[in-house]
Amino acid sequence: MSEFAFEVALCAHVEREREAVVARQLGTACHGNRVMDTVLIEPGPGFDDRAAITPERIPASAIESAAGPGQARYWKNAFDISPDRAETVVKRAVELGFFERERRNGRTYVRQTARYPDDWYDSLVGIENKPDLGRPGDLETQLRKDVSLGLLDGVVLATESHVTGAHLNRIPDEVGVWRFHPDSGEREVIRPPDPLAPAEAGIDVLDRRTARTDVAVVTAAEKRQQRRRVAERAYGKGWRTYDFPGCAEVEPAERFDRGGLPYCAWKGRFVNPARECGPDCGGYDPADAPAVDAAAERADGQPWDPDPEGRKRRQSGLDRFT
Fold first, then answer.
1. Alpha-carbon Rg of the chain, whole angstroms?
2. HSE of 124 in the Cβ direction (CA atoms, 13 Å)?
3. Where are the domains of the chain?
4. Torsion angle (degrees, nearest 10) of CA 159, 161, 165, 169
5. Counting Cβ atoms within 10 Å, is residue 188 exposed (0-12), middle (13-18) or buried (19+)?
6. How far apart (Å, rounded) are the C-alpha atoms in residues 68 and 77?
7. Which one, out of 99, 126, 196, 242, has a CA that is 20 to 30 A from the CA of 6?
8. Per-residue pLDDT tens for 42-99?
9. Contact 159, 128 (CB under 8 A)
10. What CATH fold (topology level) applies to the domain 3-47+118-237?
11. What is the DSSP letter of 307?
């Protein structure tokens, strides 16, 4: 089974088993480069308030701006970024219903329509998927980056391979290990993850070579900001991030009572449409892409609202907003 197929099968399994936001392929470094295969976001007390705003990712710059839900601010003074970038952020935040605009004497003022709930998420758990430990790649370095930074509350290695003591000795003790069987959905906890320290300063590994490792110290405040950004990206993205190809051989299938997975009858397995499908495939049979409601599939399995009512504040002079 390919890493993609293993990954989406595990996402389907976790989505069924956990009350969490499940997303794939998210950057989890602060200064370096690190993409986590799967991230689970456990809901916090303010989750319903966040869900009521928008089903999409709110731009980080909008959340971190000085445009709160109180008095409207002149848009250029609300951001510590370039005016061009700020203008783009304002436009997107208005489209999402997170900002509203008001014109005063020819100038644009902005405010949040609802206070952003910083407590909408609780723990963040990262899962590194490596179905075949015989081909580990740079697995050890990746996991050591995760532990030294401590951005997430816990990190797990998921594999289909038989896990030996030699395997365990090559990865940090803090990393949990699951053995997952994507055909049956059985998951064995070889070792639970140890709690990391997201509220403390950490070390971000920028580059690791034979004789030298470049690092950057990351403050607790920087980690807190990055955790919110990861959680927002996860909420807006989910894990069904692929489009189905226009091929009669590919159809949406279920795995562990979760739908929307791309199964190819010609290949006899799940496929990655972005890499394996198209005219270059020997089994390609042009047809309309299957109708798949990924939002409905996600809403059925995750605490995520695809169509929230929103909480726009109705204030005097609303007709002046543009």
1. 22
2. 30
3. 3-47+118-237, 59-115, 242-290
4. -40
5. exposed
6. 12
7. 196
8. 999 999 999 999 999 999 999 999 999 988 999 999 999 999 999 999 999 999 999 9
9. no
10. Trna Endonuclease; Chain: A, domain 1 (3.40.1350)
11. S
